[in-house]
Amino acid sequence: MSRTVLFSAPLALVFSMLGTAPAMAGAGIDNEYRSLGGASGWLGKATSSERCGLRDAGCYRQYQGGTIHWSPSTGARAQRGGILQRWRVEGSEHGNLGYPKVRETCSGNSCVVHYQRGTIRWTKGKGTTVSRDIDRATSSSVIVNKKRPLNPRAYAPGPLWNVGGGVQLRSDAAAAYQRMSQAAANQGVTLVPVSGYRSYSIQNSLYWNYVAMYGQATADTISARPGYSEHQTGLAIDVGAPGGVCGLQACFGNTPQGRWVAANGHKYGFVVRYPNGYTGTHGYAYEPWHLRYVGTPTSNSVKNNGYSTLESYLGLPHAPRY
C-alpha cells in the first residue's frame, strides 16, 4: 500500500522516528476496511493513499463512500455521508468532538457515530443532530467560560469527595487529584488544596464581594460570575504551597508546586486553565494555581500538541468578556 506521511505534532514526530505509527495505522485501517466488505462494501474503492500527521499522530484514508480515521487511542473507525460532512463542519479531529470511537452504525432510518466528546446522529428526512459533551454540565469535558454558562446555571454536581481541608471535588476529579498529589509528594513537592467546588450561591457572594472591593471590570478578570464558574462544576481546584507561599498570586507559578503542576498535571487529567498571556482567549488574569480536570485523553492531547487553552484546543471562540 502506498502511504503518504505528513507528521507535524510532537507525538507524531516521535512515532515517525520509531516508524511505528504508519504501520499501526495501516493495519488498523486495512482491518476496518475489510470488515466492512472492502471494495464491495459501502466504502467502495480507495480514492487516496493513507495520510498521517493528524492530531495525536492520527491517520486517515479516503474512499468512494466515506473515510476511515485512525488514532492510537481510538483505533480505525469508518464514517460517511451526512455524518462525515457534519463532523468536518465541526472541525474534524481538531474540533470539540475529537476522533470517532466507533464506526458508523445504522438502524432503520437512523445512523450514528460516537466520538471522543460527543455524538452525531443522522435521521432520514431530518438530517444531522450533534450532541456535544462540552455542553453537558455533567461531563468532564464541559467548557465553562464567559460565553458559555452552565446549564442549568444553578447546577450542582455529585457525588463530592473531600480531598483535604474541607476542599471538595467531584468524585472523578477528586480521585485524579489524590493520585496527582501523592505523585508530587513522592517527588518531594507538597500540594495544598485551597478551593474546590463552590455552589452557585457561594460563587454569587464571592463575585459580588469582589465587585464591591474592586469594581466590576476588575472583578470580571479575577472571579467568575455565578453560573459561569468552573468551580461550580466540581472539576476545578485551586492549589497552594505549605504556609501559603504566593497563595493565589502569579508568583505561585515560580514555586516548586507551581512548576510541578505545570509540568506534570496533564499526566493525571489536569490542565492549568488560565495560563499567562491568554486573557484575550479565556478572559481571566494569569492563575497558575487554578487546575481543571478534563481527563487524561484530553489533558495529554492538549500537552502533546502544544495548546495553551481549552478554547484553542477545541476550536471554540475566544471568551474575553461576557
Keywords:
322 residues; alpha+beta; Muramoyl-pentapeptide Carboxypeptidase, domain 2; 2 domains; 5-stranded mixed beta sheet; 4-stranded antiparallel beta sheet; elongated; disordered N terminus; DD-CPase-like; signal; D-alanyl-D-alanine carboxypeptidase-like core domain-containing protein; LGFP; Zn_M74/Hedgehog-like
**Adjacency order of strands in the biggest sheet:** 1-2-3-4-5
Tell me the number of structural domains. 2
Structural class: alpha+beta
CATH class of the largest domain: Alpha Beta
Please estimate the helix content: 25-40%
CATH topology of the largest domain: Muramoyl-pentapeptide Carboxypeptidase, domain 2
Structural shape? elongated
* Uncertain runs: 1-18
Number of strands: 15
Helical element count? 10
Strand content bin: 15-25%
**N-to-C order of helices and strands:** EHHEEEEHEEEEEEHEHHEHEHEHH
Provide the gyration radius in Å: 22 Å
Give the averaged pLDDT, no decimals: 93
CATH architecture of the largest domain: 2-Layer Sandwich
Major β-sheet, in short? 5 strands, mixed
Distance between the termini: 52 Å
